[in-house]
Amino acid sequence: MLILGIDTSCDDTSASVVEDGTKIISNIISNQTEIHKKYGGIVPELASRRHIEMIWPVVDEALNVAKVNLEDLSGIAVCYGPGLIGSLLVGCSFTKAICYSKRIPLVAVNHLEGHIFSSFLEEPSPSFPFLSLIVSGGHTCLYRVDGSGKYRELGRTRDDAAGEAYDKVSKLLGLGYPGGPAIDKLAQDGNPDAINFPRAYLPESFDFSFSGLKTAVLNYLKTAGVNSELQTSNSKLINDIAASFQAAVIDVLVRKTEWAIKKERVKQVVLTGGVAANSELRQKMREMGKEREVEIFIPPVSLCTDNAAMIAAAGYHHLKAGDIAGLDLNPKAYLLL
Amino acid sequence: MKKYISNSPDETKDIGFRLGKLLRIGDVVALYGQLGSGKTTMVKGIANAFGIEEREIVSASFTIITEYDSTPPFSHIDLYRIEKDSELDEIGFWEQLKGDDISVIEWAEKAERWLPDDVIKVRLRFTNNTVREIIIEGKNEKNWDNL
């Protein structure tokens, strides 16, 4: 069963052909980070306009590389939220038009569900039940997954997403966008114990909170009288701040996952989302897995970040269950799984 | 103009909740204050006055506009990423302010020229690491004595 997946939820336009929800035939992503770097964040106007310009070429390329025609598809799966509404609209409108004119079944996929299914696109893949920790610029949430369509949210962020904390702290430190790679790199040469930034463990729940950490970094910079000359000075202070901040984020993510493993008695964990590209997080999560004798699955970076293959993978299960969306499908910026 | 002192995030939410109780359909609240000053915390309090649970309100920096199906409808707008005026058009900012819901805008200075005349302005300032000064100005000021 061949499915074309389309994702335009944030800054990348992406299209992918996937067979039976597991085998990637093509996966094309218009990486827009180059454009966004200049503006210090995801600029919505650029994102929507670029999606409009990119969607045909990207879909064409996905079909060409896969050597399939629209007629060969069993369905087209599109991400309808959560995300930037203007960007989502482009993907949804485009997909609805194609499905209508070519009489192809339309499948609606929640972006977060896509992230969960990214783990089935590489061997070895997890088996149910497992925990799925999704950490990105827009999301930080933890699910128990018992099967396709069987998701139970254990917790999510109450304020900032982990990736958002990276971006905002990166800006405070005068570093570029995206903040994750910049901070990860500086942290390699820093002391994670240099500054004791707060960890919001919120022990009464599996929710997360990273807003206070961002404020703590700001207060530290003010109190220490540090300004944005930081990166040009020879001192290792910026490395220490980056390492200490990163340690605070990762400690909470790993520790809370560990608590959830104990409570839910699962033996497998999937870590995904853009922040799952972070080398330190990958390593710390694997160490914890080893200690707890739990298998940790982390998709390759190209499947952790936003991509359409994961949308096609999740869409496959919807289609198999006969879950076809109507042409009145509307994107939603705020959408729970 | 009314001035309040908040000693904790809970107090900021409280002030937001009581302000929220005074809002009517069509009201626009503009929030000003640097990173970490408590803007999103304030939104949690305001939204709570419309039956939206605190946990449902998270940073909107990523999605920019988050709408809630409360009664009346509630829009949480965060202009942190906005760099230039034309982008306000792109995100549908104008449709947001057509007066059929309650709109709360973080980083409102990025849309300063286009805020309605009767906007309610809330400024949050760091006094120290935990204390914030909260200044509210705009219509219905006489109602705010007991916030």
Name some characteristics of this structure.
heterodimer; A: 337 residues; alpha/beta; Nucleotidyltransferase, domain 5; 2 domains; five-stranded mixed sheet; 11 helices; globular; B: 147 residues; Rossmann fold; seven-stranded mixed sheet; 7 strands; 22% helix; 25% strand
Summarize the structure.
The complex is a heterodimer of chains A (337) and B (147). With 337 residues, chain A is of the alpha/beta class.
Strand content of chain A: 15-25%
Tell me the strand order in the biggest sheet of chain B.
1-7-6-2-5-4-3
Q: Which H/E pattern describes the elements of chain A?
A: EEEHHEHEHEEEHHHHEHEHH
In CATH terms, the superfamily of chain B is P-loop containing nucleotide triphosphate hydrolases
Can you put this structure into words, describing what you see?
The complex is a heterodimer of chains A (337) and B (147). Chain A is α/β, with parallel strands linked by helices and 337 residues long. In chain A, 43% of the residues lie in helices and 18% in strands. Chain A has two domains: 2-117 and 303-320, ATPase, nucleotide binding domain (Nucleotidyltransferase, domain 5, 2-Layer Sandwich); 124-298, 2-Layer Sandwich (Nucleotidyltransferase, domain 5), CATH 3.30.420.40. Chain A is built from eleven helices and ten strands. In chain A, strands 3-2-1-4-5 form a five-stranded mixed sheet, sandwiched between helices. The radius of gyration of chain A is 20 Å and the shape is globular. The two termini of chain A are 25 Å apart. With 147 residues, chain B is an alpha/beta fold. Chain B is 22% helix and 25% strand. In chain B, helix 1 (9-21) crosses helix 2. The two termini of chain B are 12 Å apart. Classes of the chains: A alpha/beta (337), B alpha/beta (147). At the A-B interface, helix 2, helix 5 and helix 7 of A face strand 3 and helix 3 of B.
